[in-house]
Amino acid sequence: MRIDIVTIFPEFFSVLDVSLLGRARQAGRIQLGVHDLRDYTYDRHRTVDDTPYGGGAGMVMRPEPWGDALDSILYADEARGTVDPIVIFPSPAGELFSQAMAQELSTEAAIVFGCGRYEGIDQRVVDYVSTRARVRLVSMGDYVLNGGEIATMAMIEAIGRLIPGVVGNPASLVEESHSDGLLEYPSYTKPAQWRGLDVPPVLLSGNHGAIAAWRREMQLERTRRVRPDLLPPA
Ligand code: 6GU
Questions:
Q1: How far is 144 from 156, CA to CA, in rounded Å?
Q2: Which of 2, 185, 212, 217 gives a 20 to 30 Å CA spacing to 146?
């Protein structure tokens, strides 16, 4: 998968050099391009924002550097033969990110993330890019971040680990929170007793049927308690 990021803080993304995603890049499973939006400005102060038309607090990102940066990335994708890239703008005004969306996006050939700051990007950037590529606005939840960088990082981690070969043991992708629509069951390891706390005896029983039933019950109990919205109405 090819991933391009447009941002005024390229240094945020140096963490993608390490851990699972870093190894996936070294193995060639993920190709990453981080682009500084200010490289697409032409004034001495490398200005990317201005006051909003119609008034109001905060600043809006001007369309020209965004248009040039995204044109350049989409052109390079085309020249490389990368088919049909999808462009994602992280935004608290977008559709909610989910495991299902991560699953869907993990099959894309190329994703471009446009990280806005301030009060957002001039709407014409989204409108224009929509005429050239598939575009989605995506939110991480009902709270406010200062910009799209941390949201992009979270999405890249959620999507990247679903790309075949990135996570060593594919079975670990199956039995985790949200992969089956429920929260995951609690996990235990050695020692069997610790500070007066015992591992639930069923896990030491060797009875695989009983263990599976107990884990299912724990998933349901936890989900009912903290995320009833995930359960089907019944
Ligand atoms: Cl994707 N961006 C910003 N700026 N704030 C957010 C968000 C995204 N998701 C939740 N809050």
A1: 19
A2: 2
Which helix (H) or strand (E) is 86 found in, with range? strand 86-96
Residue 140: closest CA among 88, 182, 95, 110: 95
| Ligand 1 close to Cβ of residue 120 (< 6 A) | no
Query: What's the pLDDT at 53?
Result: 98
**What distance in angstroms lies between residue 137's CA and the mean position of ligand 1's atoms?**
10
Q: How many CB atoms lie within 10 A of CB 227?
A: 13
The answer to whether 201 and 193 are in contact (CB under 8 A) is no
* Residue type, position 23, single letter: R
**What DSSP letter does each residue of 24-63 carry, written as one string?**
HHHTTS-EEEEEEGGGG--STT---EEPPTT--SS-EE-H
Q: What is the pLDDT of residues 121-180, one digit of tens each?
A: 999 999 999 999 999 999 999 999 999 999 999 999 999 999 998 887 888 787 777 878
Q: Which residues pair with 86 in a beta bridge?
A: 111, 134
Centre of ligand 1 from the C-alpha of residue 91, in Å? 5
CA distance 2 to 130: 19
Span from the CA of 57 to the centroid of ligand 1 (angstroms): 18
Nearest 5 degrees, angle CA 19-CA 158-CA 189?
A: 65
What pTM does this model have? 0.95
- State how far Cα 62 lies from the chain centre: 25
Overall size of the chain counted in residues: 234
